[in-house]
Design a protein that fits this description.
single chain, 7 helices, mainly alpha
Length: 181
């Protein structure tokens, strides 16, 4: 029975005063004073990455060795473990080589001397002259080779449709009607 005026106790005994609740951190457990007074910087451990298996190279090697069934391929993969080569660039936590530049290269600078002398205008004018000369030659070739293909409009202009003759035939019931004089 619980004591009078007190809640019912649970049946678990509480640990002693030297017990720490939660997870004990071996490196960082120094209390509040150490957390406020000292910045604890953790040194990064050298991390050796395990590269994924290169199944393309392993499959090529298995075919060269004469493997044909799935069991033979599995045995070859078990004994010949070929890994992908580590490129070392842009992998997480790696050192980037000095002198590498990411992104698109900048376009070359415009020579200012050519801008002052209107060199680009002259180049454009030469291109336009060459284009008109080519168009003139093409027009001459079209004139020499023959006329332009006829479409429906040009055909109908040269060959008009025959005019329908008006028929004077009327039904008999209209023939009997007499016209007033």
């Amino acid at each position: 029975q619980p004591e009078l005026g007190k809640p019912k106790r649970n049946c678990y005994p509480l640990p002693g005063p030297d017990f720490t609740f939660g997870m004990y951190m071996h490196k960082r457990d120094g209390g509040v004073s150490e957390a406020i007074g000292h910045w604890d910087s953790v040194k990064a451990k050298p991390h050796k990455r395990v590269m994924p298996r290169d199944f393309v190279a392993m499959g090529r090697g298995a075919v060269e060795q004469g493997c044909t069934t799935a069991r033979e391929f599995a045995l070859y993969y078990k004994f010949k473990d070929i890994r992908c080569k580590d490129k070392g660039i842009l992998s997480y936590g790696c050192k980037i080589p000095a002198g590498i530049t990411f992104g698109m290269p900048p376009r070359p600078a415009t020579p200012f001397f050519d801008v002052i002398q209107h060199r680009y205008k002259e180049l454009w004018m030469e291109e336009q002259r060459a284009r008109t000369a080519v168009q003139h030659v093409v027009k001459k070739k079209v004139g020499i080779l023959g006329q332009v293909r006829e479409n429906r409009t040009t055909f109908l202009r040269t060959h008009p449709l025959p005019v329908k003759e008006e028929s004077f035939w009327h039904p008999r019931r209209f023939e009997k009607v007499q016209t007033p004089h």
